[in-house]
Amino acid sequence: MLEYEVREIRMLFWNRILQGAPPQAHEVDEALLAFTREADSEARLAFTLLRACAEIAKSGTETMQRYLKVALLCWFSAVAIAGERSSYHKAISRKPHVHEIVNRRITWHEAASIVGVNPDDYTARQRLMKRLQAECAIHWVRVFGNETRNPFEVVIDHV
Amino acid sequence: MFNEDFTPFESLAFHIIKHEATPSSEGPHISMDILLGLLDETLPSIDQERARAHLAMCDSCADRFAQLQDVSQTEAQSLKNERWGTLPNYLESQRAKSAKARLFRFFSSALPKPRLRRKLLAAWSLASAIVIAIALIIGGLHPEFLFGPSVSNNSGLSAKAIAASSTIPERTALEVIAALDHTVVYYVSPGDTWASVAQEYIGDASWWPLLIVFNRDNPEASRGMLPAVGAPLLVPQRPISP
User: Fold this and answer.
1) What is the ipTM of this complex?
2) Minimum Cα–Cα distance from B8: chain A residue
3) Vertex A44, ends A38 and A46: CA angle to 5°?
4) pTM above 0.90?
5) Which of A3, A55, B106, B236 has the fewest other C-beta atoms within 10 Å?
6) Does some domain include residue B242?
7) How many separate domains does chain B show?
């Protein structure tokens, strides 16, 4: 499978998480694991983050799932592309697709209001990031072992 | 959002996402059929998901899809306006149509058989002709029966007469006549003038010639003189706004 095809599958899973229908953990592994072990570092990082997000979206608390969506809305919307699409003038739905939000520069506050959570709850955001970082670290070790440096260095015991 | 308060982990996560969602020119583009299927949601679910995933990675396809969406919305709107107008109007017309249809069905079922229907129609036509003929005969003898009261009032006033004998326009005079139909009798008091009476009863002193015309049966008034104190004058029941 070509690199862009693998990326397309990952994008499919990102969309599902944003849509509120996250994939099962084993589904992600089955679809991507085999191709990711041999992939470049960018693809490995992407798989690990996706796997961690899928885990939280599936098994995290409801609050954490919502804040995860807020974070993803902000991150994807901050991806810059050339030009401007007409869809930018439309309101963002509560279940957007990635192609509808890229380059829209949604702030944390805006994303929080779209999802319906308190934008000023910094603790919830911190808790999410810690959990996400820990999940990433776990999955990095699980898939790539300890031979390579873990970019998500974290004290896993805290999870 | 965040650059100001980014933790190292968040910076890394954003870097990953950025790499993940930045469109590239790699790979084949999706066909117009798939884009159209995505637009009208006729694609199978998994194909829709794949197509949307591709749109996130391919600027060219995402642009084409956005253009399709715009065209589709414009066309849908124009089609809707062309065929139905606004939705409330459309619903209203549908309701009217169904009401008409119900009425038609009701009367159709209530009508007698065709042969009898022809006889009834002939009888009705004859009766109508007789009624019209009678009305015309009576109308010739008593026009007001057909045409209602003439523009003259009870005193025989006409707009033309008023206009001819004063500076009041004929059209205004017509309105005044209508008001004068509701007349009252006023008895001349000491110190009265045509102008003062006109001011009080018509609402404008300059309309005093109208009172003369209206009281032309009175010999003094017909000569332009105010009748003696205590003499009756016909005046409008309520002031008129000229």
Assistant:
1) 0.89
2) A152
3) 145
4) no
5) B106
6) no
7) 3
